[in-house]
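Technical note accompanying the year-one report. For the benefit of new consortium partners, we illustrate the data format agreed upon in the data management plan: each record pairs a sequence with a structure-token string. No post-processing was applied to the example shown here.
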Amino acid sequence: MRRLMLARHAKSSWGDVTLSDHDRPLNARGRKAAPRVAKALSQAGFVPDLAYSSTSARTRETWALMEPAFPEPPAVEFRRELYGASPRGILDIIASAPNDVGTLLVLGHNPSTHALAAYLSESGQSECIDRLRYKFPTGAVAVIELAGASWADAGEGGKLLDFFLPRLLK
């Protein structure tokens, strides 16, 4: 059984119009939400063995705020190809994960993170699936049990185990 944690970066700032999209940092709301979500994931037993993150400033900052919440922080690889990746591109990156990894966290951007999570989540609690299909807000994390035997087999037929939204966490 392989678990995929698809995460969208926390809320970012649009305050400095001179920055490129890739270089935008988190805003105050995002800096509060990222550790709160990671703590909830850890408390629920969803701890990644490996993390792949986009290289954008906001995903790097999100990861830096999430990492301390995990009892044994996983190795992280910052992957430029996650920035602007299509859902198919993200699946190709997932397929490259080592077979000994049981839980993989992929930290990226919308609309691809949302589209891929909806595509992979065939079953699960109807309330979680409805919420996921409606919107994948900043800071959200979908935890999906994949149907395939290897990371390369990731595709339709997964089960949405949970969908963490910062605004629903205390």
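Partners are asked to follow this layout when depositing records. Strands lie at 2-8, 50-53, 75-78, 103-108, 121-124, 141-146, 158-164.
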